[in-house]
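At this stage, I put together a protein sequence along with its fold in token form, as given directly below:
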Amino acid sequence: MLQEFKDFIAKGNVMDMAVGIIIGAAFTAIVKSMVGDLINPFVGLFMGGVDFTNLYVVLAGEVAEGASLEAAREAGAAVFAYGAFIMAVINFLIIAFVVFMLVRYVKKVKEAAAKEEAEAPVVEEPAGPSELDVLLEIRDSLKK
């Protein structure tokens, strides 16, 4: 059973998947930073400076007027954090679009590379005598 497990781990697909997960985690951090630090400020600017993250409704508990979502949660109040959900949806859409553009670009690069390979002239080396020709020549030489 241990040998089967070693064989399974050593297969290329498992290793490829592990590398993909690691790269995906690193890429997620980059995309999160891009969305949070570069894109969301522009979204907030175009929406009149509204930060959706702190939009919530208190369902139960006492919260000071104008307190942030984090402060309301620290106070132990039950909150309906619809603003955080809206920001999560916006972040998802932006991340999905970035990933779509990346996949689209990679696909175009692969297609261009495949097209170049298909268009590359095939250099045919001069065909020498076939095996049959050589054997016939040997036979004819032996007859003489």
Remarks:
- The chain has one domain: 2-119.
- Helices lie at 2-10, 12-46, 69-74, 82-119, 131-143.
- The CA atoms of residues 35 and 122 lie 47 Å apart.
